[in-house]
């Protein structure tokens, strides 16, 4: 599910679960473990993928087969993955070479930097369209990037936008010319930052990202259960099952 490649001191962790790199429990846990290891073995991290889809978000067909207890564990682990990304002790770039929607973009909100290709690629948080909402840590991370009014419009509408718009509003930090240029651009960003005085870089990064770390202080087990409640609401399940049925046509 993952491929690892080191570019000197920079570790690239590549999602490898075709065709859409959709997130199931195994991939969530594998990515969390790979990131934690990279945080101790590498000096910077690039998260990438292959194909026209960086990540389609949660693997809805598979997750619909889980009972409540198993899904609750999966969702707890998913929120834990976002916290792992947010608190990783080394600079982390999401090199999103293709479409990044829902959970695919959601994870990237917690990184240091986000790169996508220009052209016919889309990104956005479309949870509301399938009867779901962004959990509190995601809302706060999104506000941190694009501001409260823009975050409200994005979450309420579930807009999926072109990468050019995502770049214009600060959701994506950099556009590469082609999908093939995204990872080299991410490695170049890491290389530039690792050339800075290391202690000053680390202290500045800790200070600047303290608010991101604090996002998780108020996230409780009860809020986790509330999100699980929403997943299992009859209306949400109906929408999700209809979505899965449409994918099979």
Furnish the topology, listing elements before pairings.
Elements: E1 2-7, E2 10-15, H1 25-41, E3 44-49, E4 53-55, H2 60-63, H3 68-87, E5 92-95, E6 99-101, H4 103-108, E7 113-117, E8 122-124, H5 136-146, H6 148-157, E9 160-162, H7 163-168, E10 174-176, H8 182-194, H9 198-208, H10 210-214, H11 221-231, H12 234-247
Parallel strand pairs: 2-3, 3-5, 4-6, 5-7, 6-8, 7-10
Antiparallel strand pairs: 1-2, 8-9
Helix pairs in contact: 1-3, 3-11, 5-6
Mean pLDDT: 95
Return the structural class.
alpha/beta
> What gross morphology would you assign?
globular
Span between termini: 26 Å
Give the ordered list of helices and strands: EEHEEHHEEHEEHHEHEHHHHH
Fraction of helical residues: 40-55%
Share of residues in strands: 15-25%
Radius of gyration based on Cα positions: 17 Å
Tell how many strands the DSSP assignment holds.
10
Physical arrangement of strands within the biggest beta sheet: 1-2-3-5-7-10
Secondary structure tally, helices: 12
């Amino acid at each position: 599910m993952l491929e690892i490649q080191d570019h000197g001191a920079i570790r690239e962790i590549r999602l490898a679960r075709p065709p859409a790199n959709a997130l199931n429990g195994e991939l969530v846990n594998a990515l969390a473990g790979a990131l934690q290891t990279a945080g101790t073995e590498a000096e910077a991290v690039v998260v990438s993928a292959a194909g026209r889809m960086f990540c389609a978000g949660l693997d809805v067909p598979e997750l619909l087969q889980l009972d409540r207890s198993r899904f609750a564990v999966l969702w707890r682990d998913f929120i834990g993955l976002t916290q792992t990304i947010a608190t990783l002790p080394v600079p982390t770039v999401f090199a999103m070479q293709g479409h990044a929607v829902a959970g695919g973009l959601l994870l990237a909100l917690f990184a240091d930097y986000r790169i996508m290709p220009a052209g016919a690629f889309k990104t956005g948080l479309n949870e509301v369209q399938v009867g779901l909402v962004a959990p509190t840590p995601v809302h706060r991370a999104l506000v941190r990037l694009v501001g409260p009014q823009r975050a409200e419009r994005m979450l309420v509408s579930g807009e999926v936008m072109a990468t050019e718009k995502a770049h214009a509003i600060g959701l994506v930090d950099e556009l590469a010319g082609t999908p093939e240029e995204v990872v080299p651009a991410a490695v170049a960003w890491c290389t530039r930052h690792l050339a800075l005085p290391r202690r000053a870089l680390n202290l500045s990064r800790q200070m600047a990202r303290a608010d991101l770390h604090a996002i998780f202080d108020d996230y409780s087990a009860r809020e986790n259960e509330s999100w699980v409640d929403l997943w299992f609401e009859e209306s949400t399940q109906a929408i999700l099952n209809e979505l899965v049925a449409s994918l099979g046509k």
